[in-house]
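Researcher: Next entry in the queue.
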Amino acid sequence: MAILGFGRRRPEPGKHIVPPELWNDPENAAFFARIGEKPDDPNNLRVTHDDVARMMEEGRKAVDARIHQLRAKALAEGHDNLHLRALWLLHDNCWNGEAGDFLIYHLGLNPYDEWNTMIVAEDARTASILDIPICTEGIVQHLAKTGQPIILALRDKLRAAHEEVQRTHEFGRFQDICDDTVAKVKRMAQMFGTGLVETYQAWLRKEADSRSTPR
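Model: Structure for this entry, 215 residues:
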């Protein structure tokens, strides 16, 4: 029933998308029973600003822990003064404005989750020690230009599906479309991450070739 809350995010409404008191009507109750829905089912609860703040904070701490673990391992092996950071594979502009509302409030996604977060080096020394990709400004700009239009296109397709299901009442099919949209978003991030790794590996080969070429 999350479809009933689809659209632009508004100031904090009630926690429930469909108010629990609607279950008091026998006709409504029979309908909800047919589609297997209850007032406090997760898909009848809105994602609130507090939910998002809590989700972001937990995700940020998890990423910080990953970075700390990498630094601690390197330090134990005698390496310090490393320069690394977390990179969102779906760029920041995907998590703000309309695209951000769609990803966070409608799909329930967290930019700090591992599928969207890659730990990258900011210099060649760090990359070599940790064997992680280097992130350049060119890569960041590519991600910024590529991701947002695709996210907004997925939002428009889901919005059209939502309008259709209001007429057909095929709620299960709409949930399948939502799940497929989430999968497509994550596959796109995975594709960006794979590209980043392949670019790094190509750079390593080029460096190795330049060292082995007689001068």
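Model: Confidence is low (pLDDT under 50) at residues 1-12.
Researcher: Noted, moving on.
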